[in-house]
Amino acid sequence: MLKTIKLSCLASLFFAGGLATQLHAQTVNDSIEAAATGDKKEAKAQVHKLKGILVQGIVKDAKTNEGISGINVSVKGYSAAITEDNGTFKIEVPNLEAVLTISGLEYQTKVFALRNRNSGLQIYMNEAYYSTNYLMADMPAGEQMQYENSKAASIVNFKKDQWSNPINESVGGFLQGKATGLTSIRNSGTPGAGAYLTIRGFNSLYATNKPLIVVDGMIYEDDEYGSGIVQNNLTSPLANLDVKDIEDVTIIKDGSSLYGTKGANGVINITTTRATELTTKIDFTMYGAYNQEPTQLPVMGASAFRTYVSQLEASKGLSPTQIAALPYMNDDTAYPDYYKYHNNTNWQDQVFKPSASQNYFLKVRGGDDIAKFGLSVGYVDSKGIIEKSESKRYSTRLNAALKLTEKLSMDANLSFVNNLQQTWDQGLAYKTAPMYLALVKSPFLNSNDVNELGEVSPNLADVDNFGISNPRAILDNGFGTNNNYRFFGNLKFNYEINKNWDISTILGLTFNKERESFFIPDLGVADIDLPTTIGKNRSGSEVQNYNNLYTDTYASWVKNSSEDHHFNVRFGLRTQNNKSESDLGLGYNSSTDDFTSVGAGSNLLRYVGGNLGKWNWLNVYANGEYNWRNKYFLSASYAVDGSSRYGDDADTGKDQYALMSAISGAWLISSEDFMKNANDIDYLKLRVSFGQSGNDDIGNYTAQKYYVSQNLLGMQGLVRGNIGNPDLKWETVSKNNIGLDAGLFREKVNISFDLFSNKTKNMIVYETVDGATGFDYVVNNSGAMRTRGFDLGFNSRIFNTPDVTFDFGFNISRYKNKVEDLPNGDILTNFSGATYITSEGRDANLFYGLKADGVYSTTADASAEGLSRRLTNGDLIPFTGGDMRYKDMNGDKVIDNNDRVVIGNPNPGVHGSVTTNVTYKRFSLKGLFTYSIGNDIYNALRYHMESMSGYENQSVAVENRWRAEGQQTDIPKAVWGDPMGNSEFSSRWIEDGSYLRLKTLVLGYDFAVESKYVKYIQLYATANNLVTFTKYLGYDPEFSATSSVFGQGTDIGLAPQFTSYQLGLRLGL
Questions:
Q1: pTM flag (> 0.85)
Q2: Could you report the per-residue pLDDT of 419-444, keeping only the tens digit for each?
Q3: Helices (H), 762-873
Q4: pLDDT tens, 438-468?
Q5: Cα(544)–Cα(226) distance, rounded to whole angstroms?
Q6: 3-class DSSP state for residue 481?
Q7: Separation between Cα atoms, residue 1023 and residue 991, nearest integer Å
Q8: Which of 258, 910, 957, 1026 has the most CB within a 10 Å radius?
């Protein structure tokens, strides 16, 4: 009841403020309408009817410095005028603190503050989409032009000219470099892989750190709701959204409470195709691309590998005679298998192949006074650089706006996408990932059988003596597919009660079905161990369904009381009902590799399983905005959240609702009278915000006790699945932000700077419990964490002439994380051989291992230090020459886990982008550089290629391994099984992950068009991932192997991003 009273009081505050102000002056619609239609005489006549203050000035082109005719100049809701042939204008305004809105074809609409000036005004106009200082804001009363971020929060908005950059196939790629504080890291180079998105670092250890995605007013679920069966194949539902459908993007970085417990990590609000004009427009774009295979990692050739194997065998105790007698070491040409083991195969050539991609997109927009529409269809065939990997996407979208009656309107936003992905196991899938096998497969073997005469058979070779699979066998006889269907759409109804009030409702539906299948053949692939037998070939199929019913009903009130006070209030109710289902089947040992379905496997070995998910969300919200004379802005929001995920006793008693609030304010300093002579300052704005939001990603049933089925000795039964926690609730994130925006020198220089601090309370942690319970942990809200940092954005126009323009910009972001409360002490997490530590008072997810300090040159050096290695059985073995030297951190003369320390931080010191744009007449050249500085990477792939403990081929670096007493090297000796832990997780494997990458370079040419049917023609050429400057030794320093915090910075060998060259055409009719 108390929370309901709070909500009611807040709403009453906004209404009372509106009613307390004086009545709004009579709007002079006739003059504005006359200006909008270009009737200069009528506009002038209407202006002279007003009893205001006369203002005079001139509107000029920023490039030519000449006056522009036919430009609309208006004071919203009061008066309007049109510039003369020489660019001059006269307009009456209610006061000299009013704001002019200036707009015209081919120019970016501008907002201009009078600052107590009434004559001699000079207003410079730039081309459309020049900057994001001004925007069309979706306010409760409809769209209106205003200063960027009039809501006073930390918001970045960029309106995308949908044909200005058609090169990106994914939303993640499109967002790279667009906004300070936004991190977009492509998961891998696999087509359709998606990207890992975060805003200002992370706020949680175990809950999601992804920002909330809202598309056309409806939440777009971007979570992976099931587990894929093709290993390390990362997909993202956001990859189903075609970039060329996007009209504009708004990124909310600070504490917006409107989305309650879904807005903790910021919000990315995307608006898709809109039809705003009555004339029919047709836009078509296409391109073809050549994808270049990546630079290969240097691995040993046949001769070097044979030498390495002989030393490995010697370390097992074999004599030179015994080694020479091994089949793969026999150099006698008369030996029947001589030619089988005397090849020099480049396995990377067998797996990596150049490829070609293509993309076609058609959009039609038009309508009349009653109905407007936007229809698009797209086809993308994106191929990868691993043979046969590709993603084919078929998309269609229909957005329509219908005026049903004078007061009732309806918007429809409907899309359907089919995405078919062909892929393979990736990363450290030791027996089945073609890319990994291409690195570790013996080079003296052939992909096909070779007879005693040296003739190569068309038959593929089977598994080798070392138990390593043949990657060609997987590529030729196996498969991995992911077939995804997604419908995402909503209907929005709006009823205008009167000029101040309207009511809207959104009804939305998401339907997603995904079928993933794979087959691994018997021939050429290493066997796996099953509980009762050996697994030969294997197959799998998983079907995942997700359904989401979304509603958002709200009322909006707008009130402009006189020319000074402007109120906007919105309050409403959102609901979301979610269901998911996953059904899995695995089959083993079909009678032949020709039978690839799950049903063809042995009945006794078949496995079936799956899971069901269901969760609901309720959000009651209110938002109020006020500005005075467009100089002082205040915004407040409040939300009450309920979720089926919360525990029965969450918060207080039986109250399962989260309360979130936020307030922000801004001062447009440049509109003050004392700034009227500051001609070089176009705008200057100070922003402050404080807010709370939450994170409800705590698991659908974690708070409840539940049971799972289990098979024991052929008997099926139910056992407890967890320890429920009825007190479990959402994580609460408090965000504070202060920012400054400035536009200088006729907006040739634009700067934005923010300082932020985020505090997470009630953070989810896994607390250990007594083993007698049968469980390892219980989930609790007992953690706390803080993230601080800054964002800086800079954009400038260095040259601005009719023939030549040169724009330069950059953004830089930094976040620093600190864990403040962990009641159970340090958290150690393992991922692909790496150990992460999270402890109070330090950054989260730091690399934790031994500190390497070179290699013992001699046994005498090792003996002098007197250090020993503790083996897994507890025995102590002294180090000798050729072993790794580790720091004895605790001084007990024993190297073991007690000597582990922090050895790296996967989080960057700073990250961001650099942009350039040069135009010369009809030519344009655009460049985007992305960078990351100060982040560490655990090179797990190099660990497997330099550990020298088995028969896997190694990097050429191991040719410098220790081989004799006194040798100076940083590579230890090769020993079978690595008993001394020379390849232990240590600083030896941590590398500097800093990089600077030329992400895109686009050269375009706009043809002169004089046809009444053709609006524009542009030809362009693009290079993606053209060059990367880095010290990192792996394929690619930019990757994300998991969406979890624990796992960032670990390179498990996913397909790298590759260089591609595109040639495209854009056509407008």
A1: yes
A2: 999 999 999 999 999 999 999 999 99
A3: 859-865
A4: 999 999 999 999 999 999 999 999 999 999 9
A5: 7
A6: strand
A7: 28
A8: 258
